[in-house]
């Protein structure tokens, strides 16, 4: 299988030490099979278990070097988010193993750790602590976090339950990108907030990549991933069907249309 020889950002020096190793990972989910009402009734009566194992990931393996930025592509249900959740530790594999090196932060569900009854200010400290930051580290970054989020001073001392969903996401994203991380897991995060904020997020992510952070990105936005990553993994039915140059990977998921004849 082809592998990109030049990986990571153009400016970041790549280390040969892997930041992420995914080894022969299998992940299964139990899913319920609802058929007709009659069948559901009969299985209930006979106490039949209508659940069956569904293999979302079927023995996937790859390594990501420190400083590399890699995208996982594939159609809906191919296993991208499941892979991300296994790397972040939210899920555990049924077979195989996953290793990560350094501090891993997920831009998965930004602001997921927010407490609705606490103010924006308190939630910054809470969220940063969840992401492994000390109070002193957060103190030093507090102003930068608030400025990046664009949350006004008056809202900073308001309970987060009064925020709009966009405001919550902005604050969550601002905390996440200001934490001291080595590996950043990014899941369609560039859909956060309004157009101006999305552009700001894009720039911030490019800046982090250029600082040499390892990036693991799941996205359907091929334009964005081509700008951000040099290597792409394509999943199909829970298997890796391609691992190599991002341009080639993007062409697999969205083959270029033939030019119309003149
Ligand atoms: N908690 C769960 N319980 C049951 N099945 C699940 C669960 N999570 C994921 N799946 C199934 O596993 C498969 C892979 O899901 P996953 O979310 O990883 O796909 P994806 O490639 O990220 O899709 P999308 O592009 O739509 O986000 C899907 O068929 C999905 O229905």
From TrEMBL:
<keyword id="KW-0067">ATP-binding</keyword>
<keyword id="KW-0547">Nucleotide-binding</keyword>
<dbReference type="GO" id="GO:0005524">
    <property type="term" value="F:ATP binding"/>
</dbReference>
<dbReference type="InterPro" id="IPR015860">
    <property type="entry name" value="ABC_transpr_TagH-like"/>
</dbReference>
<dbReference type="InterPro" id="IPR003439">
    <property type="entry name" value="ABC_transporter-like_ATP-bd"/>
</dbReference>
<dbReference type="InterPro" id="IPR017871">
    <property type="entry name" value="ABC_transporter-like_CS"/>
</dbReference>
<feature type="domain" description="ABC transporter">
    <location>
        <begin position="39"/>
        <end position="262"/>
    </location>
</feature>
<dbReference type="GO" id="GO:0016887">
    <property type="term" value="F:ATP hydrolysis activity"/>
</dbReference>
<dbReference type="GO" id="GO:0140359">
    <property type="term" value="F:ABC-type transporter activity"/>
</dbReference>
<keyword id="KW-0813">Transport</keyword>
<dbReference type="Pfam" id="PF00005">
    <property type="entry name" value="ABC_tran"/>
</dbReference>
<protein>
    <submittedName>
        <fullName>Teichoic acids export ATP-binding protein TagH</fullName>
    </submittedName>
</protein>
<dbReference type="InterPro" id="IPR050683">
    <property type="entry name" value="Bact_Polysacc_Export_ATP-bd"/>
</dbReference>
<dbReference type="InterPro" id="IPR003593">
    <property type="entry name" value="AAA+_ATPase"/>
</dbReference>
<dbReference type="GO" id="GO:0016020">
    <property type="term" value="C:membrane"/>
</dbReference>
<comment type="similarity">
    <text>Belongs to the ABC transporter superfamily.</text>
</comment>
